[in-house]
C-alpha cells in the first residue's frame, strides 16, 4: 500500500505514517491553527484595513515602556518608563531571566518610528498584549496605534537556534514578513514563521525591522 505524505498543520514538519502526534511541536495530527486558537475575552475593536498596506503610514507607534532611544547602547535591560507614561498592566508574564542570553539569542526590534527594543526569549506584541490563562512570556511589547489597525494581541515571538520566529495570533489585519532573500510571506494565523535578521514584519500600518 502506497504511503501518503503528511505534514503537521501547525508547524509543517513531516509526519510518519500513522502518527498521532507531531514529533516537532507535539500537536495532534488532527489539530489545525483554528482549533488551537484560544478565545479572547476582550471585544474585538481592531479597525480592518483592506488591502494590507505595504509601507508605514506615518502613524506614531510608541510602545509603552522598555524602549531605547535611537542610538542608545542597548544591553537588553528594560529602560524605565518615561515620565507621564503608564507601564503595561501586569498580566502574570514571567520576569526576564536573570542570566543574560547570548548575542545569538538577542534580537533588536526597530519600530517604524525609530524606537528600538532588545528582546530575547518569548513575547507578545500588540496594542494591549495579554497572555491567555496559563501562558507566560518574557516580554509584552505594547504599541500605541491610534488607527487601531494593530490588534490588541497581534503576534507572538520566540527564537529557535538563533533565529527569531513569529506567529500571528489571529489578528484582524494579519501579519506579513518580508525576508531579504525570499520576498514577502503572508503569515497563516497560529503557525510559526522564521524571521531572519534583516527582515521586516508588517502589522497592518506598522513595521518592525529585525536585526
Explain the overall architecture.
The chain has 211 residues and is mainly beta. It folds into two domains: 1-31, no CATH class; 49-211, Tumour Suppressor Smad4, CATH 2.60.200.20. The chain is built from one helix and 13 strands. The chain has one helix at 33-36; strands at 6-7, 14-15, 107-111, 116-119, 123-126, 139-142, 155-160, 163-168, 175-179, 183-186, 192-195, 200-203, 206-210. A six-stranded antiparallel beta sheet has the order 4-3-13-12-9-10, with no helix packed on it. The protein has a five-stranded mixed beta sheet with strand order 6-5-7-8-11, with no helix packed on it. A two-stranded antiparallel ribbon has the order 1-2. A hairpin with a 6-residue loop joins strand 1 and strand 2 (14-15). The chain starts with 5 loop residues before the first strand and ends with a strand. It comes from Agromyces soli. Residues 82-102 have a biased composition (Low complexity). Residues 141-203 form the FHA domain. This is FHA domain-containing protein.
Amino acid at each position: 500500500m502506497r504511503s501518503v505524505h503528511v505534514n503537521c498543520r501547525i508547524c509543517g514538519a513531516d509526519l510518519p505514517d500513522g502518527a498521532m502526534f507531531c514529533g516537532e511541536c507535539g500537536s495532534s495530527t488532527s489539530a489545525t491553527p483554528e482549533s488551537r486558537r484560544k478565545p479572547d475575552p476582550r471585544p474585538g475593536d481592531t479597525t480592518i484595513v483592506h488591502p494590507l498596506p505595504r509601507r508605514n503610514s506615518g502613524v506614531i507607534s510608541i510602545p509603552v515602556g522598555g524602549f531605547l532611544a535611537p542610538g542608545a547602547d542597548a544591553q537588553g535591560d528594560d529602560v524605565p518608563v518615561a515620565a507621564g507614561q503608564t507601564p503595561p498592566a501586569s498580566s502574570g508574564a514571567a520576569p526576564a531571566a536573570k542570566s543574560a542570553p547570548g548575542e545569538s539569542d538577542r534580537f533588536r526590534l526597530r519600530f517604524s518610528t525609530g524606537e528600538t527594543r532588545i528582546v530575547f526569549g518569548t513575547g507578545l506584541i500588540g496594542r494591549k498584549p495579554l497572555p491567555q490563562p496559563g501562558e507566560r512570556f518574557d516580554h509584552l511589547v505594547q504599541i500605541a496605534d491610534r488607527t487601531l489597525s494593530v490588534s490588541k494581541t497581534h503576534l507572538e515571538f520566540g527564537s529557535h537556534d538563533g533565529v527569531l520566529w513569529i506567529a500571528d495570533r489571529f489578528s484582524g489585519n494579519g501579519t506579513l514578513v518580508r525576508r531579504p532573500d525570499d520576498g514577502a510571506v503572508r503569515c497563516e494565523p497560529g503557525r510559526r514563521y522564521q524571521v531572519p535578521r534583516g527582515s521586516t514584519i508588517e502589522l497592518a500600518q506598522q513595521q518592525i525591522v529585525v536585526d
